[in-house]
Specification:
Blueprint: H1 5-10, H2 18-32, H3 42-55, H4 58-73, E1 81-82, E2 86-87, H5 99-111, E3 122-131, H6 132-137, E4 139-150, H7 152-155, E5 172-183, E6 192-195, E7 205-214
Parallel strand pairs: 1-4, 2-4, 3-7
Antiparallel strand pairs: 4-5, 6-7
Helix pairs in contact: 2-3
């Protein structure tokens, strides 16, 4: 997440109030909206819409601003050290929504069905424990998230004549993919960090990690 990128996308200052952010979004949307804009640009419109969805939501904006401040403090620091993997949801004792709802919600990105998710977009907040040394020096936390990928046996045509024993006929199998959370030096207790999962094909979930620093 580049420093201040979302504010730059909307052309507003980081101290802009909600009315300014809303006006900026409407002004830009009139220009680049793919169906009604004077200069249609679908990719640009998606960037503007995504920035507005975060900056117009007070909770998401606070988390984003915390990340910016932390990145600014650590901009001149030495390269961050990586720590051990954290796996969602196995490494967390308390989990809301339930694990079943969480996995079903992720599956929508790959299968398109809706069962228990409760809507098209959700936030998931979990506590991430760091040692005081990790918080002081900064660290890279590799986070593994469940996704669904094309079944390797079906893609090779090995199961065309019977139900595939690997995927049960769904054509997809569950896998774990990695995304990194970079925590800059000087992180403090209860700071919030957003983890973007769109690179994993997950577009309906915002993952928020709240720091718990232990001695």
């Amino acid at each position: 997440m580049r420093r201040g990128r979302l504010y730059k996308v909307l052309g507003v200052e980081p101290h802009a109030d909600q009315r300014e952010i809303k006006r900026a979004f409407r002004r830009l949307a009139l220009v680049v909206h793919p169906d009604a804009g004077r200069e249609p640009d679908p990719q640009r419109f998606r960037e503007i819409r995504d920035a507005y969805e975060i900056l117009s939501d007070p909770g998401r904006r606070r988390a984003y601003d915390v990340t910016l401040r932390a990145a600014s403090r650590g901009s001149a620091a030495e390269p961050l050290r990586s720590r051990s993997y954290v796996t969602i949801p196995e490494d967390f004792a308390e989990f809301t929504p339930t694990i079943g709802e969480f996995l079903d919600h992720i599956a929508q990105n790959f299968f398109g069905f809706h069962r228990k998710s409760g809507g098209p977009y959700r936030r998931l907040r979990v506590d991430l424990t760091l040692t005081s040394e990790e918080a002081r020096a900064g660290t890279i936390v590799p986070v593994r998230v469940p996704v669904w990928e094309q079944c390797p046996r079906c893609s090779r045509g090995e199961a065309w004549w019977r139900t595939c024993p690997t995927c049960g006929g769904y054509g997809m199998v569950e896998a774990l993919r990695k995304v990194e959370l970079r925590i800059p030096p000087g992180a403090s207790q209860r700071e919030l960090y957003e983890l973007d999962l769109t690179a994993l094909g997950i577009r309906n979930l915002l993952l928020e990690l709240r720091l718990v620093v232990r001695p």
